[in-house]
Amino acid sequence: MSTLTPLKQSKWKYLLLLLSSGVTTIAFLCSYIAIFGFEYHHRFREGYIGPGTISKFIGVVILVGYLILTYVVTWDYNRDINSSVVRIFKSLFNAIVILSTGSLLIFLMFFFIP
Fold first, then answer.
1. How far apart are CA 106 and CA 113, in angstroms?
2. pTM of the model
3. Are 17 and 101 in contact (CB under 8 A)?
4. What's the pLDDT score for residue 103?
5. I want to staple 74 with a disulfide (CB 3.0 to 4.6 A). Which of 56, 65, 94, 113 is the partner?
6. Environment class of residue 108 by beta-carbon count within 10 Å: exposed (0-12), middle (13-18) or buried (19+)?
7. Among the residues of the chain, which ranges form H helices?
8. Are residues 62 and 27 in contact, defined by beta-carbon separation less than 8 angstroms?
């Protein structure tokens, strides 16, 4: 029996979803800034210096590492499921929900907050 079982059976799991989506938003924002730079919208101006190769690499590492970490955490969260196939798909579904909610938050942040 998982130590998270009482938490999964309560309404607190939705709070975990919001918290993990907030962390997703922060991770996406950090990788976006590392890959494209702070002033990406000024890239066509005279004298714009974009981020270096190492900075872009760090941004990609943050993004890919976070995606892998999200799947591993959801895999551990679903450890009380006995069937491997069901566990894989349930973990994948949970990871997609977390990442899509975080993506929606970052989308709202980029386009609707002045």
1. 10
2. 0.69
3. yes
4. 80
5. 94
6. exposed
7. 5-8, 12-36, 53-77, 84-112
8. yes
Are residues 19 and 97 in contact, defined by beta-carbon separation less than 8 angstroms?
Answer: no
Which DSSP symbol is given to 40? G
> Which structure tokens are listed for 112?
């609707």
Q: Cβ distance 16 to 42 under 8 Å?
A: no
Task: State the residue for tokens 């991770």.
Answer: 27
58-105 pLDDT, tens digit per residue, is 888 988 888 888 888 888 877 888 888 888 888 888 888 888 887 887
Please say whether the beta carbons of 70 and 95 come within 8 A.
yes
Coil, strand or helix at 4:
coil
Domains of the chain by residue range = 11-39+46-112
